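Notes from hallway chat w/ T.B., transcribed later so I don't forget. T.B. wanted the structure written out for a chain they're using in a teaching module, and asked if we could keep both sequence and structure tokens in one place. Agreed to drop them here.
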Amino acid sequence: MLSGAEKFAADNKNTYGAFASLELAQHFVEQNDLPNAEKQLQQGLAAASDDNLKSVISMRLARVQLQMKQADAALKTLDSIKGEGWTAIVADLRGEILLSKGDKQGARAAWEAGVKSDASPALSEMMRMKMNNLSI
């Protein structure tokens, strides 16, 4: 069944293929097969035409890249996300990525920017807690 889904995702360069790639990527993450998850997300990104769908896929891709210790690639992926509605969540993940690189000041700056943006109260509070946990 998995190979059929992979074939469908590869053969359909449209929204359906992008959604199939998202589902496959989730399966691979659950199996801790991050390289295949990354491959599916890249494929889904290429198939997607809607900006919000591209942003969702890019967020997931950046998280997978972070798990694979590819911080620079994850930051580059985040840079591709545009749109006001994404500012806070991108800032939160950017802070996590920068912290993984040992850049505490960069992480703090990212989280501060996120708090000042359109963040939900819960996300703002989470970013404040992350800043408070930094020892700088």
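Follow-up for T.B.: The chain is about 80% helix and 0% strand. Might be a good example for the class.
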